[in-house]
Amino acid sequence: MMKKFLGLMLVCILVLSLSACFESPTQTPIKDNDSPSTSTEEPSTPSLEPEDQDVAEDPDVTIEETILLDQDGLVITAKKLVDDPIWGIGLQVLIENNTEDNLGVQCNSLIVNNYMITDLFSSSVAAGKKANETIYLSSTELEAAGIKTISDIVVSFHVFEDDSYSTLFDTDEIEIQTSAYGTVEQPAMDDGKELFNQDGIRIIGRYVEEDSFWGAGVLLFIENNYGENIIVQCDNMSINGFMVTPYFSSTVNDGRMALSDITILSSDLEDNGIEKIEDIELVFHIINPDTFATIFETDPIAFSTN
Length: 306
Fold this sequence. Notes:
The protein is mostly beta strands. It has two domains: about 25-50 and about 190-305, Sandwich (Immunoglobulin-like); about 65-175, Immunoglobulin-like (Sandwich). The chain contains three helices and 22 strands. Strands 1, 12, 13, 14, 17 and 19 form a six-stranded antiparallel sheet that branches. Strands 5, 6, 7, 9, 10 and 11 form a six-stranded antiparallel sheet that branches. The longest helix has 22 residues, at about 1-25. The relative contact order is 0.17.
């Protein structure tokens, strides 16, 4: 019960924070400034809200019941798509634990129409028992990515002993095609200023949100065609010349896209007397999620909103 309560609290916080980042009317486009960047072309003016931001997912999309995983006594079956009035679209799964151990199941990654989607899914299933669970797809993130109709869902699972938290195995990506598969062209929400573009990895600064749930946010579009999964983080961040602490880490699987927010706490802004974000400078760290080896570390990248 405590795990479910904590999970519910985390979901509530996530929904509130993402709503502030994606839906607030105070989003300010990121522009060029006098500092050099990796972009060689003048960026187009960012679209602060996706054209289909207010369009709900297609309610007629369905999936066929499919066994996603049958390994070492654990069976996970995708049953159907559900639409909850609070949590939005979800993938209902049946988890069958045919082992003598209590098992835990989480998502390593969740991808919809090629976009990485945040998940807070975690299920505990006692030995010899079953559980009906729902993996919810963040409706706010779907809308921000311009996803009107769900074409496919890709998930990978992390399986562990529930008592000791020892890892048992991690799965590869598993694709679930909906009835709309092959009929959807998913746009890249990459309007904004190109901050980094090298070896198949692109990072676009879309806009700054000064009234987000935590304080302020910098929304990034990330596209990974590097050939490996990556984690993107940042460091040495300053706003209007004052050093601040960025809270940001985004995992982007190979061949996927992500919309991720760099969060700056309101206390950091208040302590430095920052009332309006104008100039930003930071360094990106791009690392391998398996070995944590550095793939790229950028020079300082400067951009602005004025």
